Amino acid sequence: MAGAMAEHKTTTCENPPRLRKRQEFEAAKKGARLHGRAFLLQAVKRKTEPENGETRFGFTVTRKCGNSVMRNRIRRRLREAVRLCDRVAALPGHDYVLIGKTEALGEPFTAIVASLTESLDRISRFGANPHKPGTGISSRKRPPR
């Protein structure tokens, strides 16, 4: 029985760099926003680092979402979703803040991961207004149609 346990391997992704300081979270407020069912995603390009800098993520949950146990569960789910999602769409040199909502507790985890991947892709392509092309936070040109 112990041999079967030793053979079981899980694939782990590395944890992304995190935002820690209040100033970094405040800067993200001024960037692009995209509302999801379980979270609000904010994104901003860092001014201090070159274009090829690392992508950082921050997590916050307000007291309106419940007591500390519920807030910590929401935060843990969001951190794990970022760890497992496809972060290819996240632009280098940008900071992303996920503000958790109460719906994150009732939402299936796979739906949160899928929503996060889609949100990262959308916010990197369109920025704050997905209905208005060319307003994105990225300087990439859109391919002609």
What does it look like?
The chain is α+β, with helices and mostly antiparallel strands and 145 residues long. It has a single domain (17-126), classed as 2-Layer Sandwich (Ribosomal Protein S5, domain 2). Helices cover 37% and strands 17% of the residues. The protein is built from 5 helices and 4 strands; from the N terminus they run H-H-E-E-E-H-E-H-H. The chain has helices spanning 2-7, 22-29, 68-84, 103-106, 109-126; strands at residues 32-35, 39-45, 56-61, 94-100. A 4-stranded mixed β-sheet has the order 1-2-4-3, sandwiched between helices. Helix 3 packs across helix 5. It is globular, with a radius of gyration of 17 Å. The N and C termini lie far apart (58 Å). The model is unreliable at 3-11 (pLDDT under 50).
Could you list some keywords that capture this structure?
145 residues, alpha+beta, Ribosomal Protein S5, domain 2, four-stranded mixed sheet, 4 strands, globular
